[in-house]
Amino acid sequence: MATALPASIADVVQRLSSGPLALEVGELALHGMALQVLEEAGKPRGTALTVARAELSGLKLGGPLDLSLAAGTWSLAPLAGAEGAIRAEIVDAHLGFDADVTVPIRQGAIDFKDATVEHVGPDSRMGASRMGIYVDAPNGRSYLYQFASAPVAGVEYESRGAMLGPWVTDRGRLQLQPFVEWLLRQPASGQLLGVPEQARMLFDRTKVSGEVRLADGKLAAPGVQADLAGRAEGRNAVRLHSEAVGRGLTLEIASLSVKNAVFGSGGIETRCDEITGALTLRLFVEGGKVRFAFELATVRMTGLQLRLQR
């Protein structure tokens, strides 16, 4: 026999589904549930819900991506020990030939001397200068991302030979955690202005794939904080792919493992001792705006607590 959702759960769904966001929930099973109710003006109101164990499937949340929220507090410790590689295939490149790009990630860093840009003729090289992240191709240097000012957190710039000669002796490095945290703290307008028009055209012809194995550690974003755990068991590996990265990108975590999670949004505080499951996040451009589609195919939670604020 079907039963109605508790008032607190219904309130959560209503709040998340309001405005530009759309929320869908497939199946939800709650075990060991306790609801705290207060009486206000002669009417009962659910204020807190605790659940010993919950299983959820088919959760989907989507809508416009509000880049203004990004300029907040970020802590991305799992990037500090990340391992993996990102590969890109540039088709009909502006350079006049196709190119295959491989960017290794080791101990949370990209060392541009290890990045390869292979194509017909002499290969190109990637690097980081005080002006930005670049590709040195046979027809000259072009920038994938330009820095508004230097220094930039997490960037070790290229170095040249004696007497400021033209030859680059070290292509530089990116420490992922400080660099990505710095990037996310920039105003949305600044993030977009950093990508030159030529690079945007290039990204529309760039196919991307790869895997990044995140380290254990604290993850904090506006309204969210949690501890990633389970690296030794192969958890929290991010697979990314795109047919044209300028138009969209998909990230998948087939084995998510999170502990001590805290979420706060719309007057709702949610805490959870442990979360495991499978996650997919799609970012795409529609109508000239960036949108997101977040899906939890299956998820298991223990020690779940929800508190509704006035």
Automatic annotation (TrEMBL):
Protein name: Uncharacterized protein
Organism, scientific name: Ramlibacter montanisoli
